[in-house]
Amino acid sequence: MQELTKRNLRAWSMLGQRGTVCGVALIEIMEEYQNSYTLTADLAHLSGLDRVQHMFPERFVNVGIAEQNMIGIAAGLAAEGNVVFATTYATFLTMRCYEQIRHHMGYQHMNIKLIGSAAGVEMGMSGNTHYTYEDIAIMRAIPNITVVSPADPAEAYQIMHQAAATEGPMYIRLTGGMNQQIITKCEDGGIQIGKSKELQSGTDVAVIFAGNIAGTVQKAVELLESEGISTSVIDMHTIKPLDTRQLERQMGKKIIVTVEEHSIIGGLGGAVSEYYAQFERHPKVVRIGVEDQFLHPAGKELLLETAGLTPQKIYKRIRKELNR
Amino acid sequence: MQREELEKIAQTIREDILTMALHSGTKGAHIGGGMSCADILAVLYGSIMKYDVSDPEWDGRDRFIMSKAHSAIALYAALRYAGFLSEKEINDALQGRAYLYKHPRMDISHGFEFSGGSLGQGLALAAGSAVALERRNNKDAKFYVLIGDGECDEGSIWEAASFICHYHLKNVVPIIDLNHLQNDGNTEDVMDLGNMADRWRSMGYDVIEVNGHDVMELQAAFLQETEKPKAIIAHTIKGKGVSFAENNVDWHISYLTKEMYEQVIGEWNCAGDK
């Protein structure tokens, strides 16, 4: 595993989450773990798996355009003591195969790591078949499955190595394209699956986010801070198991805001709301994300605008919720 | 193994199925499918498969995957014959919070390679495991996957079937329990898949068709070497051996009364449940 050096962060930033996962982390993992396999459903090239395929042909399996079968094959490999990385677009990986995932990963607890690429609205002009804003909701409803959504490629890189070293089923949700903003700082040290990261601490509002929306959130928070609204910013890269200690610490805030490139139903916002709902007194939870609808297809920037996921819109929404 | 010996094992399996069905009470049991595959299981566990009850995870073992897992009742009986399950576990089955319920749960210590209940999932799992074994140079272990003919409605079966032929995984042997009945009636009426043997042949298999209740034919089919991956089509009768359940769709899952039970025991001329 490589260090979090400035040089690495620069390189990974250019590659994006998928490029870093499939083109860097997976190669290291396949080299280190002789019992690791990589599976694709006719998306090797588009996923950036060419090097994995050429370097490890014996442990690389293309199942064709048959995602459900991919999960079954992954389960069989895992049943024989292997750690299996299965990857394709997040939409087909999670939704087409849901029962296979529930059966093999949830019920049978197979050591399969799903890597869902281009989650959220990354696929822009491809339209709704290629968007994935229900995946966190459905994945976290299945017992036993860890659900992670890295904020940047450096987090994705670390999560991959931790996933390889940890037994058990996991869904890794990759967001954003190439040339991603890196929020990880070399001096901060690494992240740990299951433990959120407080990027800054404030007293009025807590903004909790997951995924590559991180940069947008940071810009919105700058606007809030410029008006004297003191804001905590929390990178909740692990949605399940949820870091409830962190949520407990934020209990005294005026409002809790969740931001995600996902439906406001059942995702990070759902998970956070469920946590606070168990207390008689708790702060209001404001969920920012895709409302309950299919978006009219457009370029990614326009889709984010519609979903209220721009710095200005997030900032205005929070101001409004604070009655300012 | 000789005919007489194998038929005796099959009879033991049928008697255990009947006992479990009786104990399950009004909740009912999958007697039809269980009896349909009793002879297949007898041959597999009696003479074909390698396994070691004292070392259930032995890498050289053959793996049985009950993809048509609603017939678990037959697997339970076969695993008791093999020594993985106790008489008590059979007697307690399908009641209360018993270890054995209507579908099997993966637990290799008791011979369960796979959790079942969701149809169409077993063949892909076997195929994945076969890749793993091939790549670690275990050339001996085989996977026997029992699939229902109704189950073949599931598209996932055919995704896995293609995969097995594409990767030439000869150690995976699908066995189709072709009894022509599914929940809602005749398979030909509910969803006609045409000629089952032709279907598997067209996927790239060498197909062997047998009478699924003739233990010697079954044994020979399992032992036959083939060029391509092998698929066995076992022509069977749902409910086989239970006179009133044979070819009767109502016995896919049904409640066996004490009187019915006594009748069958009488017909079989065996001791029955005490």
Automatic annotation (TrEMBL), chain A:
SUPFAM superfamilies: Thiamin diphosphate-binding fold (THDP-binding), TK C-terminal domain-like. SMART domains: Transket_pyr. Pfam families: Transket_pyr (PF02779), Transketolase_C (PF02780). Keywords: Thiamine pyrophosphate. Residues 16-180 form the Transketolase-like pyrimidine-binding domain. Belongs to the transketolase family. This is Transketolase. It comes from Roseburia zhanii. The lineage of its organism: Bacteria, Bacillati, Bacillota, Clostridia, Lachnospirales.
Automatic annotation (TrEMBL), chain B:
It comes from the Bacteria. Residues 8-260 form the Transketolase N-terminal domain. The keyword Transport does not apply. It holds the Pfam family Transketolase_N. Its cofactor is thiamine diphosphate. Keywords: Thiamine pyrophosphate. Belongs to the transketolase family. This is Transketolase. It comes from Roseburia zhanii. The lineage of its organism: Bacteria, Bacillati, Bacillota, Clostridia, Lachnospirales.
